[in-house]
């Protein structure tokens, strides 16, 4: 996932953290990627120059909501995400929101 950090609301670190807490990575790995992945602890892979561990961020919707409140994000604010279709294995299913979202 890539975010434009120059525009509101994703220019706020708390919003970016909230997005990370709101994604159930374990469920995506289990149900979409059939267990063939590990949860990342950084925006870049350990094998790449510039790697810096920043997480992991466990799935915690309540913490995500609290961070959004702290950031002053109005209830009902929507973000629009784009997702590739066919570029990566299971790319679109991994990006699709769950029915509970």
Would you write up a description of this structure?
The longest helix has 10 residues, at 13-22. The protein is mainly alpha-helical. The mean pLDDT is 87. The chain is globular. The chain has helices spanning 13-22, 25-31, 61-70, 91-95. Helix content is 32%, strand content 0%. Helix 1 runs antiparallel to helix 3. The protein contains 4 helices and no strands.
Helices, strands, pairings?
Layout lengths: L12 H10 L2 H7 L29 H10 L20 H5 L6
Helix pairs in contact: 1-3
Put the structure in a nutshell.
The protein is mainly α. The chain has helices at 13-22, 25-31, 61-70, 91-95.
Tags for this model:
101 residues; mainly alpha; 4 helices; globular
